[in-house]
């Protein structure tokens, strides 16, 4: 068989390689069977090759550019999204080759490599996500070291002071108060980190019992205010809240102390923070809202991720642990949590939905996790 016949036989039989014979102006003069399959079009011949390109590439003059480069250099290799007859797209690897037989024209060869392209995109996204998470971890560890340095320095100073104060000195009580407050702050930071780690590995447990909604929220607000060391008012509205829900009281305190504390941290003294609770069918819906600095769409995407932080020149960004812990606890109770914001300067809103009753037939307290 003549080599030309063998080549023609290859293009007729191959299921993967589309071949288009183009005139000088880009009109398709011949297409092999694979081209009809790959482009889902049996009427390619007679049409301009630009019909096979994405609209934005046609507007950018890519079909003409490919032929111009191929005419000048003999070959133009190009990988890009191509368009089928139904408008769908596929990723094509291929080349445009100039014919030097005196009549001119081109052969455009390509393969559908969409699967490989998507696999590469997935791997790249995974790599970028891991790199971003690694950066978050590094930042969080540095922040944790900084946050712990303050209470530990106070603890050390108090220890030195207690060594020098005589027994019965009135300053001992105040020194012990500072000591206790800073030990508690350091302990809380470490406990949040440990709890978040347990939640991430599925090892967090909760102990469900019947708890009063108003008492749960009032206690959380008071605790958040004490930790923030601010007398700022937090308004609580209970227009249609259920009297009680079945949940772990300690874990619920972690949820709402973190949310209210977060609102206080990112809201200036002239701003407002309020909490609303209502019954929504068989669920409790709690909204924690503020008029603080708000969040950008980029921050909203990762706000519940471990070590995710919203940095601001005026407000402390925290460790990026609290909201990840909130999500873990709420989902462990069969609920959900959402973050909303209209952008920087427009405040934030967190919506927590919890089932009023856990799906357990036992009336007695039950363990989950």
TrEMBL record:
Keywords on record: Kinase, Phosphoprotein, Transferase
SUPFAM superfamilies: ATPase domain of HSP90 chaperone/DNA topoisomerase II/histidine kinase (SSF55874), Homodimeric domain of signal transducing histidine kinase (SSF47384), PYP-like sensor domain (PAS domain) (SSF55785)
PROSITE patterns: HIS_KIN
This protein's record includes keyword Kinase: yes
Histidine kinase domain ranges (all copies): 143-358
Reaction(s) catalysed (UniProt annotation): ATP + protein L-histidine = ADP + protein N-phospho-L-histidine
Domain of life according to the entry: Bacteria
InterPro entries in UniProt: HATPase_C_sf, HATPase_dom, His_kinase_dom, HisK_dim/P_dom, HisK_dim/P_sf, PAS, PAS-like_dom_sf, Sig_transdc_His_kin-like_C
SMART domains in the cross-refs: HATPase_c (SM00387), HisKA (SM00388)
CDD domains from the UniProt entry: HisKA, PAS
Presence of keyword Repeat: no
GO MF annotations, alphabetized: kinase activity
Pfam families noted in UniProt: HATPase_c, HisKA, PAS_9
Documented EC number(s): 2.7.13.3
UniProt-recorded name of the protein: histidine kinase
